[in-house]
Design a protein that fits this description.
The complex is a heterodimer of chains A (about 290) and B (about 325). With about 290 residues, chain A is of the alpha/beta class. By secondary structure, chain B is of the alpha/beta class. In chain B, helix 1 runs parallel beside helix 2, helix 3 packs parallel to helix 5 and helix 8 packs across helix 12. The longest helix of chain B has 16 residues. Chain B is globular and about 60 Å long. Classes of the chains: A alpha/beta (about 290), B alpha/beta (about 325). The interface between A and B is medium-sized, with 32 and 30 residues.
Chain lengths: ~290, ~325
């Protein structure tokens, strides 16, 4: 497996500030995004891509790599920003090729046929977990030891296919499968619990036969790492419960006027808002 | 168009649904590497049962959850497997449409979706009829859609699909259907087979309906001396447009026959080709009209909607003024 790019909590926290800033600039330049959800997943995405995933953005189809599947595909700009930070693309290149008719390398919803760092094309919700179940089954069938990690949103969790996949993932005892629920408690038009309440989600998922790990603050890097440290070893022969991580996050995390405001689910950001947002994010830097 | 082949009027009944399972089993025994996902309706006692019994490590039951099954099949394919995925026909396109569209086709993976009990062959009424699938599949990019005419052709497609790149749907009916092809022949995906040459009209059909078309052609020859050609359009997508145009130019009379709604299926596909190439001849679609089917046996339903040899003959006679 690859050596982690960053190891300490402080390094990872510092990287989150870079990613948030770059993400905001990127969304400003392309004029569209889903900043609320994109900001809520930053700590988890940074922890995965800089420490826990065996994945090299410069060699994205390498055999034996861990597979990260972002089911909430509308938040893919966070991933593009990380790919850029890790050297795969410059931000200028990403802006030039964002939803460009000629190349369409990067889109609001990620496409694996265009962007090689993307494992599974996404957009329509409720797809990532069933596909991940199949991916994990395939890894076992082929005798390959890699992790399959799927991230879904709590609004997305309304989709019944997730619950079908919870059943099949547990039924096949897919120890090599992890699902991360980004529980930011907001979806497009309001509070998730008012639109369609999924709680008590931990009890429900546990009852479906998964091992549940709950992160009290999914925007706290130390807590995120403590959860990811508990992932099972990479061993496709082991047949145990799959892992479900509930990451309690804040939509729009780090930007004062976006936090907890569902109106920042989708759209672009203006120049004045960008200035405030970048100043807010800069305050998160500890070093 | 592929080479014309022989066909046998004294047909043996065979069952594609059983035969394809047997073929998968044979392929597994030969060492071909694939996995099999299936729904609860695949009984262990069926021919696929041998595969389930002897190769359990590569067979995955998803219960009654078609969307999960199709999504997981995409994941298996992304992990590097060739996947055969059997779903009860009507519930494949209707229950798992988004998964076929997004997980299978958009991701462009090597899954062979096998929809059994196609058209009205399942019995059990309109909930169990599969009359909208071709219309859906035709609108989804990357999908190749084949409708075998008999068990032997179904097995040929299953075997051929091992080396095929991209997603494919294999649509087969429920029960035994007559063997259409007597001898061996070349089968090419996307190339229609001219099972009968004709000078007065052509019937374009696919699946087990092809047999009734051949019977209608023979009856019309005996009764009225008509020469009715029959095209086996086994690949509905991509359609062999050249074969359609040749048949149209040769006779100026085209009839399509399919066990599917006349909206958007094979007939629709042929109509699009004819219109876009400036066809001025006669054209008629035979299939399920825009309604849920009457209740009855498959034969009764076919007869009711003129999808059997009598109905097909009647349409051709009217078209040709006989």
């Amino acid at each position: 497996m690859n050596e982690p790019k960053l190891t300490t909590i402080a390094e990872l926290e510092d990287k989150c500030v870079d990613i948030r800033s770059n993400l905001l600039n990127f969304i400003y330049r392309i004029g569209m995004g889903h900043l609320g959800g994109e900001l809520s997943i930053v700590e988890m995405a940074v922890a995965l891509y800089y420490k826990y995933l065996n994945f090299d953005v410069m060699d994205p189809h390498k055999e034996g790599r861990d597979r990260f599947i972002l089911s909430k595909g509308h938040c893919s700009e966070t991933l593009y920003t990380i790919f850029s930070d890790q050297g795969a693309y410059t931000q200028d290149f990403m802006v030039e090729h964002f939803e460009s008719l000629e190349t369409y390398l990067f889109g609001m919803h990620s496409n694996r046929k265009r962007c090689p760092q993307i494992e599974v094309s996404a957009g329509s919700l409720g797809h990532g977990l069933p596909v991940s179940v199949g991916y994990a089954l395939g890894a076992r069938y082929r005798g390959e030891n890699y992790r399959v990690i799927c991230m879904i949103g709590d609004g997305e969790f309304d989709e019944g296919t997730n619950w079908e996949a919870l059943m099949s993932g547990a039924h096949y005892r897919l120890n090599n499968l992890t699902c991360i629920l980004d529980k930011n408690q907001l979806q497009m038009t309001g509070k998730t619990r008012e639109i369609m309440n999924i709680d008590p989600v931990a009890d429900k998922v546990r009852a479906f036969g998964w091992n549940v790990i709950e992160i009290e603050d999914g925007n706290n890097m130390a807590q995120v790492c403590a959860a990811l440290d508990q992932l099972p070893e990479r061993d496709c022969r082991t047949r145990e419960k799959p892992t479900f991580i509930i990451s309690n996050t804040v939509k729009g995390k780090g930007v004062s006027f976006m936090e907890g405001n569902h109106k920042w689910h989708g759209g672009g950001i203006g120049k004045e808002d960008l200035k405030i947002a970048l100043a807010d994010v800069a305050k998160m830097r500890k070093a | 168009m592929a080479t014309k082949t022989t066909y046998d009027f004294d047909m043996m009944l065979s069952n594609a649904r059983e035969a394809y399972g047997e073929e998968l089993y044979k392929m597994a025994k030969e060492g071909k590497d694939f996995v099999f996902t299936y729904s609860d309706n695949v009984a262990p006692s069926s021919s696929a049962g041998k595969l389930l019994k002897e190769f359990p490590e590569r067979c995955f039951n998803f219960g009654i959850a078609e969307a999960d099954q199709v999504g997981a099949s995409a994941g298996l394919a992304l992990s590097g497997c060739v996947v055969f995925s059997q779903v009860f026909g009507p519930f494949l396109p209707l229950r798992a449409a988004d998964q076929i569209h997004t997980d299978i086709a958009y991701n462009d993976v090597n899954v062979r979706l096998i929809g059994t009990h196609s058209g009205v062959t399942a019995g059990g009424g309109p909930t169990h009829n599969d009359i909208a699938d071709l219309a859906l599949y035709r609108a989804i990019p990357h999908l190749t859609v084949v409708v075998p005419a008999d068990a032997n052709q179904c097995c040929k497609f299953v075997r051929k699909s091992m080396d095929f790149v991209g997603p494919m749907v294999i649509r087969i009916d429920r029960a035994g259907s007559p063997d259409v092809y007597a001898g061996d022949y070349e089968l090419e995906i996307g190339k229609a087979i001219e099972t009968l040459e004709g000078t007065d009209a052509y019937i374009i059909s696919c699946g087990s309906n092809l047999y009734e078309c051949l019977m209608a052609s023979r009856a019309l020859e005996k009764e009225c001396g008509l020469s009715i050609g029959v095209l086996d359009m086994h690949t509905v997508k991509p359609l062999d447009a050249d074969a359609v145009v040749r048949a149209a130019e040769k006779t100026g009379n085209i009839v399509t026959v399919e066990d599917h709604s006349i909206n958007g299926g094979l007939g629709g596909a042929v109509a699009e080709v004819l219109c876009e190439t400036g066809y001025r001849g006669k054209f008629k679609r035979i299939g399920m009209p825009d309604e849920f089917a009457v209740l009855g046996s498959v034969d009764a339903i076919y007869h009711h909607y003129g999808m059997d040899r009598d109905g097909i003959s009647a349409v051709l006679k009217k078209m040709l003024g006989r």
